[in-house]
Amino acid sequence: MMAPGRSIDDVGTIACIGAGTIGGGWAAYFLARGHRVKVWDPAPDAEARLARLIEAAWPALEQLDMLEGADRDAWSVHTDLAEAVDGVGFVQESAPEDLTLKRRLLAELDAVTAPEVVVGSSTSGYGMTEMAAEVSRPERFVVGHPFNPPYLIPLVEVVGGEGTSPEVVDWAAQFYTALGKSVIRMDREVPGFIANRLQEALWREALHMVDNGEATVEQIDRSIRDGPGLRWPMHGPMLTFHLAGGEGGMAHMLDHFGPSLKSPWTRLQAPELTPELRGDVVAGCEVASEGRSVTDLVAERDAGIVAIRRLLGRDESPEVPS
Amino acid sequence: MMAPGRSIDDVGTIACIGAGTIGGGWAAYFLARGHRVKVWDPAPDAEARLARLIEAAWPALEQLDMLEGADRDAWSVHTDLAEAVDGVGFVQESAPEDLTLKRRLLAELDAVTAPEVVVGSSTSGYGMTEMAAEVSRPERFVVGHPFNPPYLIPLVEVVGGEGTSPEVVDWAAQFYTALGKSVIRMDREVPGFIANRLQEALWREALHMVDNGEATVEQIDRSIRDGPGLRWPMHGPMLTFHLAGGEGGMAHMLDHFGPSLKSPWTRLQAPELTPELRGDVVAGCEVASEGRSVTDLVAERDAGIVAIRRLLGRDESPEVPS
């Protein structure tokens, strides 16, 4: 067992390993939250790209009132790994999604980073158990999976590997939360975690549709953008369907649309809708409703859709059918 | 071939067949757009439920400036089908999702509705070819698939069956568009159309996760709500991934994340990422970008996420990790 050496209030400088879209986005966010950032990236244009990314991100962070105590210029780029992690209180690894590369990189990081420092990985789907296979101190390695852009999307999925210390998982969840993130702490290593499993199912179905000439890219995007995608920022997919059941909620919805789980509406086979699964989903919707009735949730959803449509200029102006 | 008897400017009264969540939502929308509505629903509490639904929907429609010329009380409920469709210029069928029931109901509608009137069906996934199996005039039956709530979500998927007249499909697409809807006109009958194929893949993956204890209902909802769901109202899933590739766009994204299509990130197998599929997706993103560079789209996405987070009160306030 390992207790991280720094309190979350005392992290100070953070190392960002890799400064692509994700690593650079993390750097912008850490800067906004008042940290100094040391970036390691071997690409010759890393510094120029990162400067552009931070410049593009800053106005949005300002609009979210995120910049108290922030110094936009408090970052440096390093090509030597040991130099990049020297003196830092946390490391966020965002290297390309290649298991062999990640394994080697985490082992190198392990060798040069002070032993009490926690290392979070931005991996989109590998488990820490397989990524930390070559490190000496697996206890301080944890997945902290963000979403693009990491400076604006709140979600971070936190999950340890078999060798990760539970205290490190706790510490990472608290650290990201204190940074202003919406943390989902998972107890199990599931490939793709939660959100990527869900959006990957949608993405693969979309690729099949393009592959078979069933829909164009533009139709797929518009079907989500002008359709279900307008509902999900308020309630997510489960509570959204809770409302599709009318006053009977999810129980009515499952009884009414349960048979469609057998329909060829996607290439993905559905699980059997057993009484246990039905019960879990209905009970879960009760928990997620947090005391709001279906009527309350409908009013909340409608207000949200109206506001988003007005916001995006997508009110009643008719579009030309395609 | 059949030419619909009414111009879209001359539809007048509309019949809503079924007044549940979807049929009642259509009724509210048709009323808002200045039509009179005749509702057929055999349930004894249909009138009371519909009154509540219209009352709940009206403020949102008002906020969207949809109510010019609308008479909120211009509706009546009928238990006799012939009476409900008498004198109407369009019929929207929103009966329960049961193929046997739909087949019988469409045949009854066909018998009592004036022959030149178009009948649209709200079916979530049946093809019109199978639903219209027992009608005498299949040429005037067309799918017009809305999303809940039909009075706020713009998307309507329009697709005919084998017997549907192309003029009727055109007419329906123009009619819904003139009503202020975002119409996707499909050339092929695909079970579940487009948006339901996509959201059904996500929903089935979510059910599997609950079934296997991999995630709770609350985690699933939050993973979308605080994660990818904040991006989709702006750009849909394809253009969203176009931006994940950084300045290299979708081409870079596919080359970088292509191998993850082989990963067990969902139970859904991906199609082979052939050069043809890669080309179609990259070219489709160019079309969908409508001249906007990746930098333009990133700025648009960021502004949208910031505005939605502020709108929903989900700015920096940290949440307790779960």
From TrEMBL, chains A, B:
Membrane-spanning parts: 12-32
Top-level taxon of origin: Bacteria
3-hydroxyacyl-CoA dehydrogenase C-terminal domain: residues covered: 192-260
Annotated InterPro entries: 3-OHacyl-CoA_DH_NAD-bd, 3HC_DH_C, 6-PGluconate_DH-like_C_sf, 6PGD_dom2, NAD(P)-bd_dom_sf
Enzyme class label: oxidoreductase
Database matches in Gene3D superfamilies: N-(1-d-carboxylethyl)-l-norvaline Dehydrogenase, domain 2, NAD(P)-binding Rossmann-like Domain
Annotated keywords: Membrane, Oxidoreductase, Transmembrane, Transmembrane helix
UniProt key word Membrane: yes
Pathway: Lipid metabolism; butanoate metabolism
The protein's Enzyme Commission number: 1.1.1.108
Domain 3-hydroxyacyl-CoA dehydrogenase NAD binding: 13-188
GO biological process, one term: fatty acid metabolic process
GO terms for MF: carnitine 3-dehydrogenase activity; NAD+ binding
Keyword rRNA processing listed: no
PANTHER family: 3-HYDROXYACYL-COA DEHYDROGENASE FAMILY PROTEIN, 3-HYDROXYBUTYRYL-COA DEHYDROGENASE
Similarity comment text for this entry: Belongs to the 3-hydroxyacyl-CoA dehydrogenase family.
Protein name per Swiss-Prot or TrEMBL: Carnitine 3-dehydrogenase
Organism: Nesterenkonia xinjiangensis
